[in-house]
Design brief:
This protein is mainly α. The N and C termini lie far apart (about 60 Å).
């Protein structure tokens, strides 16, 4: 049976064209990295929840949240929890969040420098 190729949508074509711009590609890669990091954290917390034997409802009760909040967090395609929520979830399953130096430090973008008013830690 021949393999069907996916027809590119108008958006796919637009996106491909935008990715030719180095600044767009750089900004996209940074944003995608942030989304992936959050997603990886949420998935790791869900694995820890499962290993601890807690149901999503049990975990919700442990952090004083409605069960549907935790259920949505663990089933959403692109979750976007607050740092406070991540800290509370981690503690409820016996973990803590920790800041670890990246082995490949990257320079902050000009927008993050402007937002903080500094060039980063000294």
């Amino acid at each position: 049976m021949p393999r069907r190729t996916k027809t590119k949508t108008g958006f796919d074509k637009f996106f491909d064209e935008q990715m030719k711009s180095p600044s767009f590609a750089k900004d996209y890669a940074e944003a995608r990295g942030e989304v992936d990091a959050i997603d990886n954290m949420v998935r790791a917390l869900d694995v820890a929840r499962e290993k601890s034997g807690l149901t999503k409802a049990d975990l919700a009760a442990a952090i004083d949240a409605r069960p549907e909040v935790v259920r949505r967090l663990f089933t959403a395609k692109n979750p976007n929890p607050t740092l406070s929520t991540l800290i509370r979830l981690a503690a409820a399953v016996g973990y803590r969040l920790e800041l670890v130096r990246d082995t490949k430090p990257r320079r902050p973008s000009s927008s993050s420098k402007a937002a903080t008013g500094s060039s980063g830690p000294g």
